[in-house]
Structure formats: C-alpha cells, structure tokens
TrEMBL record:
GO cellular component: cytosol
Name used for this protein in its record: Protein GrpE
Coiled coil: 29-56
PANTHER family cross-referenced by the UniProt entry: GRPE PROTEIN, GRPE PROTEIN HOMOLOG, MITOCHONDRIAL
Superkingdom of origin organism: Bacteria
Keyword Chaperone: yes
Organism for this UniProt entry: Roseateles asaccharophilus
Cited Gene3D superfamilies: 3.90.20.20, Head domain of nucleotide exchange factor GrpE
Amino acid sequence: MTTDHTPTPQEAAAAEASPAETLAPEAKIAELESRLAEMSDAYLRAKAESENIRRRADEDVAKARKFAVEGFAEAMLPVMDSMEAAIATPDAKVETVLEGVHATHRQLAAALERNKVVQINPAAGTKFDPHQHQAISMVPADQEANTVVAVLQKGYLIAERVLRPALVTVAAPK
C-alpha cells in the first residue's frame, strides 16, 4: 500500500534551501568565517577612513584659527607703511604731516570697511540703544528723553556683532 506523504513546511523549506544552507557544517563554518573576515576588513577600512577625515578636519580648523586674521593683517600693512614713512621724516612741515595723517586715516577706514568693521556713530537725537551704545551720563537737553545728545567715542561692529559700544551722553527725562 502506497501512502501519499504531504511534506511538512520544514521539509518543504529544506528542499528549497540554498546551497549554502545544505552544506556540511564544516563548509558552512568556513563560509561564515570568510564573510566575517571580509566584514572585519571593511569595518577596519571604514574606521580608518573616518579617523583620517576627523584628523584632516581638526587640522583644517587649526589652520583656520591660526590664519584667521591674515586678511585683516594684510589690509593693515599699508597703514603701517604710511605711519613709518611719516616717522622717517621728522623735519616735515606740520601741514605735510597733517595731510599724511588724513591719508593714513582714509587707508585705515578703508581697511576696516573691507574687513566688515563698521562704525557706530549715532547722530544727536537718535534713540539710545543699549545693545550698541554705552551711556556715560545723562544730561538735561532740549530733545526727547533717552536719546543721544553727543558721542564721546565711536563704537564698532564686526559682522553685525558689537566690538566696542559707542560711548554717548543721553538726554535726561524732563
């Protein structure tokens, strides 16, 4: 008598199994060890590459910090040259020296502007701004309270950040 045997799901899966799954245990272990070696090698290479990237990034940041003022220093060199030229001629006439001082001031102003250093010089009557101005005193004045009466020392911004606030006197409340 012949009995029809229906395969169980496990038997069906074993029949359809890939060649690697039907290998002898020793061959399967050798294949897994080979895959492990490949993955370990890939991992070590990726780790080394990420370390190299991190090291290069650290070097780039260090160079950026070290040479951050290079452009500004280059802009200051002509100003220094002008001042040295003025010092080198001690017998120059006052008018000539004053003309040279004005020229040097223009060079300095241009160099600061090229490097995004902007003056804070509020006009009289400008509303007092504690973020950009430093009040030295309050004085009675014929203008609205809490407005700038006079600038005692100009302030400066660098890239919209206050480098030094303007020193001002402010109108006192009436």
